[in-house]
Design a protein that fits this description.
The structure is a homodimer.
Chain A: H1 2-15, E1 22-27, E2 30-36, H2 39-42, H3 49-61, E3 69-75, H4 79-87, E4 92-97, E5 122-125, H5 129-150
Parallel strand pairs in A: 3-4, 4-5
Antiparallel strand pairs in A: 1-2, 1-3
C-alpha cells in the first residue's frame, strides 16, 4: 500500500521537526522515489516532499518525463508541486488529506485539469485521509503546546 | 541591469540546446543567484531557471525565506515556478516576455496576487520584453529548421 509508505515518510518528517508530509513515486509497480518535507532542515523553500520525490524519480529513471508514473502524497499539493506534476507529465496523482490553505488539485484551484496547460493528469483524492490529516493535526498541536510551555 | 544578466543566462541555455530562459536573484543590491534552464541536460522536469535560482539563493543566504529578494527572469513563470516564488516569500518578480502557453503571473492565471495563498508579491512585467522574446523565437525557429534538414 503506497500511501502507507508515504505516511511513514510523513511521520519521519514530523520527528525531524518538519511539517509531516511524505511522498512516493511508483513506476511499473516499483517504488522509484520516497521523500519527505525538508524545508527547515535543508533551508530550501522548494524542498516539499513531492518536489524532492519528482526529482529523485527523474534521476533514478534518467529522464524528465514521468508519464508512466504515479505520485502518492499525504497532503494535497500546493501550486508549486501541482505545477511540477504538470511539468513532469505525471500520469496520476493520489493524495490523502485536502489542504484548505494551499491545495491546488481541487481545493483552491485545480492544476490537474486546466485545459490551457500542456498536460493533464488523473487524480484520486482522500486516500487514508483520516490518518494523513491526523499526522498533521497532531504535529501542529504539539508545536502550539511546546510554544505555550516555552513562552 | 539585472535583466541583461538573466538574458546572458538565457543565451547560454540556448547554446546548450535548452529552451533559452535565464534568471537572477538579487538581495540588497547583490546578485546571489544566476541560473538557466537545464531540463534536458539535467533530465529534471523541475530544472527551470527560476527554480534553480531560488534554490541557489536560499543556499547562499542559508535560509528559505527570500522576503528581501527580487527574482529577474526572461520569461513569465509557469505555475510551478510562480508557486515556488510564493513558497519562498519573494518580495518582487521582474520578468521579460509573456508566456501565452503557461504564464502563471498574469497570462493564464495570477499566482502573485491570490488572496487565498499565504503570500503575495510585487510584479513588473515586460522588461526587455523584445530581447527576451526574440531569444526564444530564434531558438525555436532554429530547432524547426534543423528538424526540416534532418527529416
Amino acid at each position: 500500500m503506497y500511501m502507507a509508505l508515504a505516511l511513514e515518510e510523513a511521520r519521519a518528517a514530523g520527528a525531524e521537526g518538519e511539517a509531516p508530509v511524505g511522498a512516493v513515486v511508483v513506476c511499473d509497480g516499483a517504488v522509484v522515489a520516497r521523500a519527505r518535507n525538508a524545508r527547515e532542515s535543508a533551508a530550501d523553500p522548494t524542498a516539499h516532499a513531492e518536489l524532492i520525490a519528482i526529482r529523485q524519480a527523474a534521476e533514478r529513471l534518467g529522464r524528465w518525463r514521468l508519464s508512466d508514473c504515479t505520485l502518492y502524497v499525504t497532503l494535497e499539493p500546493c501550486p508549486m508541486c501541482a505545477g511540477a506534476l504538470v511539468n513532469a507529465r505525471i500520469d496520476r496523482l493520489v493524495y490523502g488529506a485536502y489542504d484548505p490553505k494551499a491545495g491546488a488539485v481541487g481545493t483552491l484551484m485545480d492544476l490537474s485539469s486546466d485545459e490551457r496547460l500542456n498536460h493533464r493528469f488523473a487524480v484520486t483524492a482522500g486516500v487514508l485521509e483520516r490518518e494523513c490529516s491526523a499526522v498533521l493535526t497532531e504535529f501542529f498541536r504539539g508545536l502550539r503546546e511546546r510554544q505555550k510551555v516555552g513562552g
